[in-house]
Amino acid sequence: MRAPESALPIALENVSVVAGGNAILDGVSLAFAAGPPTILIGPNGAGKTTLLRLAMGLIAPSRGRLTWDGRANIAPERYAIVFQRPVMLRRSTAGNIQYALAAAGMPRASRDARCAELLALVGLTSLAGRPARRLSGGEQQRLALARALAKDPSVLFLDEPTASLDPAATKAIEDVVRAVAARGIKIVMSTHDLGEARRLAGDVVLLHRGRVVESTPAAEFFAGPRTPEGRKFIAGELLV
After folding, report:
1. In the chain, helix, strand, coil percent, each to 5?
2. What are the φ/ψ torsions at residue 77 (nearest 5 degrees)?
3. Residue 240: inside a domain
């Protein structure tokens, strides 16, 4: 896996996303820069998934300005996203990765070696021949990560990749996230799990009602949130 070129920062300037007359994101100003993982936290409906889709370039802002490394309107090609419930192709585990490598334009002669590398990275080498739809939920999520990495991304967006997984499967996903981040790939990930945020985050973004409540280094946030919403959230109280 080659070191990715920079496609950062991703900068949002007073960005709103409106759907059906409702503001899903409301006046968000934020930047994602190179470095350790950025973890998005907040209650359901806070706007985390919409923010990921926006930063990926899948949706356009209703208002405001969004740029990638200073460029507007054209998202970099080497971005990838994994959704909470990825769809498995009717192929083997390795076949799913091979398909992703072909779609990414990798020469056929290089695909087998790259596929083996990705299988090893996500811990699925022994399951290479198993039909992907027969994998467990955690194994499917790791396969989805491998498919996303087939694109050789510089930024990887993850939408609650450990939701509904047991502790062992969660640890396996977190291990992959750490390994990917160590290779210089920027991770922007949403989670409901404060423990996971503590374990993975370099910096934390707390969203509530479509607004950024706090954006700060993780150590500072968990040592003492600056806002009432932040203090309530880490205390386990409901944000409504």
Report:
1. 35, 25, 35
2. -70, -30
3. no
Overall number of domains in the chain: 1
Distance CA 191, CA 49 (A): 10
Give pLDDT, residue 5: 53
Q: Whose CA is closest to 7, among 51, 56, 60, 58?
A: 56
- Provide long-range contacts, Cβ within 8 A and 24+ apart, for 54-62: 54/12, 54/15, 54/17, 54/25, 55/10, 55/12, 55/157, 55/188, 56/81, 56/157, 59/17, 61/12, 61/15, 61/16, 61/17, 61/25, 62/16, 62/17, 62/18
- Is position 2 within any domain? no
Q: Which domain holds residue 118?
A: 10-234
Pairing status of strand 38-41 against strand 22-32: unpaired
| Spans of the chain, pLDDT less than 50 | 1-4
Assess contact for 162 and 191: CB atoms under 8 A: yes
Kindly report the length of the chain.
240
pTM: 0.94
Rounded to an integer, what distance in angstroms lies between the CA atom of residue 91 and that of residue 115?
Answer: 14
CB atoms within 10 A of CB 166: 11
Report which residue type is found at 8: L
CA atoms within 13 A on the CB side of 88: 20
Phi, psi of 27 (to 5 degrees): 65, 45
